[in-house]
Amino acid sequence: MFDMIVSQAVNGLVLGFLYVLIAVGLSVIFGMLGIVNFAHGAFFAIGAYLALTLSREFGWAAALVAPTITGLIGVIVEVALIRRLYGKEPLLGLILTFALALFAEAILRLVFGAAPLPFSPPKFLSGFVEYGPILITKYRIAVLVVTVFALIAFWSFLRYTPFGRIIRAGSRDAEMVGLLGINLPIALSSVFGIGCLLAGLAGMLAGPLWTVNPSMAAGAIMPAFVIVTIGGLGSYAGAIIAGVLVGVVTSMTIQFHPDWSSAAMYILMAIILLVRPRGLFGEKWERFE
Amino acid sequence: MSSNSSRHAIKISRRALIGGAGGVVLASATASEFGMPYIRSAAASDPIKIGMIYAKTGAVADQAEYMAQGSLLALEARKNSLLGRQAEVIWLDEPTSQAAQQNAERLIGEHKVVGIVGGSLSPSALAISAVVKKAKLPFVAPNAGAIDLTGRLCNKYTFRLQPPADVHTRVLAPYCAGLGKKWYLITAAFAFGQDIKRSFTEFAAANGITIVGADEVPVNTADYSSFILKIRAAKPDVVVGGVPGSDISTFLKQWNELGMKGKIPFAEIAVGATDLWGVGPEAADGLFTLNWYHKNPNNPPEEQAMAASYEQKYKRPAADKAWMGWMAMNAMLDSIEAAKTTEPGAIVNALENWSVQRGGVKAGYRAFDHQMVNRLLVVGIKPKITDKWDYFDILAETPSTDREIETVFGSQAQSACKMDKL
Does residue B127 register a pLDDT over 80? Predict the structure, then answer.
């Protein structure tokens, strides 16, 4: 039994990191822009479809461009629609992004059809590694490495670059940043684009693991919201810890009580919110109070 | 302002007006007689409306799309005409079973349909069945496999094409038993999955087979790796699946990813060809029951013609679900024509007497439970897939004669259905 617990814990950890990648983009968009982006799952699906199409046409290396294209689509959406919602009633953002999610799913269905499409990992990442009770596929190890690298790179960007400082300052006091003569709209578009890029990256990585179909967003968006809520709205570190927690708790529930596996993350969320109503790392943000 | 407008208005003489009006009348009459005869009959009476409830989103949307296209093809083959009147289909969604129920009520109350075809998943079909029972309107469910639909919860107005889980089990379980005596069950936590679990467990108990593990998984599970690790540790001889729609695609992809393909045989009943096409040739694996396969040389000529029409129209082969939608709608339309009326009771009687010859089996709905008896295919994945639309080798067609039907589908005495009256 101990072997199975170890095996499930490692598997849950890897799954959790994929969830983290989906959730971080959502958390960043909420934290910086104050928008609860229901369309985040749609960008995840767009990333998967772009990666699949590019890999079919030009080989797997071309699929690496998919997250960037997803990010650019995000920038266009922000400029055309999202920026009209800043400072407005939060409900408007919910309605617009929900409509956007439905619209994106319909477009994917129209272009690619409703049927699931086959998408396999690159050949050099097929196969698995066994170490004692732990079995992990090479592709999942690659997902883990790429996720950790993306998270460190994004954190460093926010922390150490002048542009990152503008974004962080703008998320706290947009008016003051504007008064300092900084072009905040460009920064906000970039934030939304980066959030969508992270969703697209998650979609690209999840495509060969999950099923690529127009409704695949549903499988991503709910865990992402749960992770962001558990971690604390807008908290980067919170999203990472919560994602790993959700992955491990889900795996353990599958081992001991499989029919509760889909409910496990919601129960975890309920328990954490009872103890810490703002989530694990939630702070009091004046603009959201 | 008004005087200015009148100055720019086009002036039409009285003679031109009368001439133009006469021309429109003449053109309408000509069109109705020669080009569009339905215009006159449509004007004489409203079109006959058939309700269709198939998922437009969610895990079974791809299967539902094929079913909807097959159903629409059946009506188009009749030039959208029934009983000499124009006929049309009203297609509503079924995102949840509650929505399916509400949409069935809308079809009946608002659109005044004369019958309903649809219900992609068992919970939806059961919900629609309850509505039609109350409204007394014929309903044909092509895809739902829950035993209760034509069992304990049967009613006079509900007909079902898909054989229930216990019938599929009787066909596939002997093949699984031939592969080994230790089974692991992984089934979805909804009506059809639970029926699969029950049917295979009963078969196992009666045939000396040990169930070494049984997991119920939520519908729309995105990651099965933790379940697969459990299966691997349990070391079964066979894994029996019962996950619907695109969930089986996800499962098989991850099954292959974790190196299980070819190590432990996988079997599942009532799959759709599209689910396996979505897995890809590298990961596709298993033994399955299918209702129909477009590459089956034993398909009757009219089904081959349907498959050709489908491929011509939709630029892809007809999957089994397209046939199911076509067959279900055909039964409804044939029965309306046979009844010579849209009166529900007459259509129900006609549906009970409807049948088509498929090889050695006369396919039709049994009067005592309204379950269609038909032949099923046992298929295995080809060792080498070279055509992206051709994944299966047909291993058997069961039942192959009318005499075998009762053995596979069960007798009236075995049925839990207590059929009500019109």
Answer: yes
Give A-chain residues touching B258 at CB under 8 angstroms. Answer: 128, 135, 137
Instruction: For residue B347, give how far its alpha carbon lies from the nearest alpha carbon of chain A (Å).
Output: 33
Burial of B19 (0-12, 13-18, 19+ CB in 10 A): exposed
Question: Domain segments of chain B: what residues?
Answer: 2-36, 48-164+297-373, 166-290
Q: Tell me which residue of B16, B348, B328 sits closest to B142, measured CA to CA.
A: B328
Q: Is the pLDDT of residue B352 over 50?
A: yes
Name residues of chain A where pLDDT drops below 70. Answer: 284-289
pLDDT-based confidence at residue B8 (cuts at 50, 70, 90): very low
Q: Which token pair is B79?
A: 């030039």
ipTM: 0.86
- Check residue A289 and give its pLDDT: 57
Domain that holds residue A25: 2-288
Q: Does A114 touch chain B (CB under 8 A)?
A: yes
Residue A255 with chain B: CB contacts under 8 Å: 226, 230
Query: Fold match between B48-164+297-373 and B166-290?
Result: yes
Question: Using 50, 70 and 90 to split pLDDT, how confident is the model at B58?
Answer: confident
* Contact of B51 with B107, CB cutoff 8 Å: yes
Closest CA to A240 of A4, A19, A47, A79: A19
Q: Is the predicted pLDDT of residue B40 greater than 50, yes or no?
A: no
**What CATH number was assigned to the domain covering residues B166-290?**
3.40.50.2300
User: Is the domain B48-164+297-373 a CATH 3.40.50.2300 member?
Assistant: yes
Q: Which of B62, B221, B226 shows the shortest C-beta gap to A114?
A: B62
B278 touches chain A (CB under 8 A): yes
Distance from CA of A118 to the nearest CA of B (A): 5
Residue-level length of chain B: 422
Q: Please, where are the H alpha helices in B161-300?
A: 165-179, 191-206, 225-234, 245-257, 273-277
- For chain B, say whether A68 makes contact (Cβ under 8 Å): no
Distance from CA of A6 to the nearest CA of B (A): 11
* Domain total in chain A: 1
Q: What is the DSSP letter of B390?
A: B
- CB B233 to CB A259 under 8 A? no
Which tokens sit at A138? 């090479």
Find, among B105, B226, B240, the residue nearest to B165 by Cα.
B240
Pairwise CB contact (< 8 Å): A213 & B254: no
Task: Report yes or no: A147 at the B interface, CB cutoff 8 Å.
Answer: no
Mean pLDDT value across residues B234-238: 96
Q: Over the stretch B170-199, which tens digit does the pLDDT of each residue have?
A: 999 999 999 999 999 999 988 889 999 999
Residues of A in contact with B250 (CB under 8 A): 210-211
Tens-place pLDDT, residues A108-167: 989 998 888 889 899 899 888 888 888 889 999 999 999 999 999 999 998 899 988 888
Tokens, residue B205: 């108990």
